[in-house]
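In the previous lecture we treated proteins in isolation. Real proteins rarely work alone, and many bind small molecules. This record shows how such a complex is specified: first the sequence, then the SMILES for flavin-adenine dinucleotide.
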Amino acid sequence: MKSSKDKLVVGAGPAGLVAAINLKREGFNVILQEKQARVGGEPGWHPSVHTTPVDDPGLYDYIGINCAEAFVDSTDVLKVFVGGKDVPGMKNVFGKLGMKNTERGDRPTSLDSFLFRIAEKEGVEFEFGKTFTQDDLERAAKGTILTTGLTPGMYDWLGIDHTVFAGYWANTETEPGFVSNTFYLGQFSNEYGYACAMNGIWYVLLFARRDVDPQDLEKFRGVLAEKEGRTFDKWRRFLGHTPKGPRLFHRDFILAGTLAGVVEPAFGGGITGALLSGKIAAMAVTEPDRALTEFKRFTDGIIAHIARKKAKVGYAPTIQMGKVWFDVK
Ligand SMILES: Cc1cc2nc3c(=O)[nH]c(=O)nc-3n(C[C@H](O)[C@H](O)[C@H](O)COP(=O)(O)OP(=O)(O)OC[C@H]3O[C@@H](n4cnc5c(N)ncnc54)[C@H](O)[C@@H]3O)c2cc1C
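The predicted 3D structure, ligand included, written as tokens:
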């Protein structure tokens, strides 16, 4: 028999894991349901290296989990090429945010595995290999936390307006201690490319708000050969879905991570957004008003960012937009 202390979290990405850990610590019986056979997300996208601004230790204090072990600082090695030219001024803007790299996927060194180990220790119960369906959604208890990330179905089932982005990625092995973080802006697609390394993985991605032009991909490969001194051969395409705006509550459910539309607004860091919103989703179970206030505080900058894009005043991140994220005591 279900009790009000039973909570279901759907999706074992960073948002779902942080929500589950926090709820378990609040005394709930937490089940985390994940469609893949193990933690580490969509196998077609990983192992990968992501980069994101992190307020260390502000973010870790806020979510109640010290994730320092899963991140490596990449501010010092950061390079930003705009239109093919190294622009130190851009490095200064991004650098002020405190850039970090983190590994994603199912290897023991990934952020996903790190959070999984903590969740297991706290006593979160996992149901792997179990896809949450539209029928499950209709039967789900009020307050179920949904964190299904970039995958498409849930948006349609919930009736959430969303957009699709596309990209190509490749990876290769490198020396375990090698850390890199390079952005290529204004040269290929309507968004950007990046090259990041840590834990022996060198990961490159060309990302676009529309499908990537094959000529852009060819150009990106050439630039990587020139600037990174490496060729990347096995490219894989991906499509991801994101909502058109942020929301914490929808119908009777609580949303977190990508599904909630939470990204760090200065840079668009989804990892930081997922970690932070996992905490807010757990808060929404016990203190919904406070959680909504917190959610709005962190997402006001995202709304400003979307408005800037719509008004075509540029994609450039501003420190101002990110300020609240870097002051999270
Ligand atoms: C190729 C790529 C590169 C990226 N690079 C960066 C980067 O450099 N920096 C950055 O900050 N962000 C980056 N992102 C975005 C980042 O990965 C996301 O913001 C982050 O993973 C969001 O976390 P989440 O927990 O919301 O979702 P996810 O990490 O996507 O986790 C969702 C989980 O839900 C599971 N799931 C989905 N549907 C169901 C279902 N029906 N039933 C049960 N389980 C389900 C999935 O298997 C997955 O494990 C990148 C994303 C991609 C795809």
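Summary for your notes: Residues 6-326 form a domain with the FAD/NAD(P)-binding domain fold (CATH 3.50.50.60). The chain has a mean pLDDT of 90.
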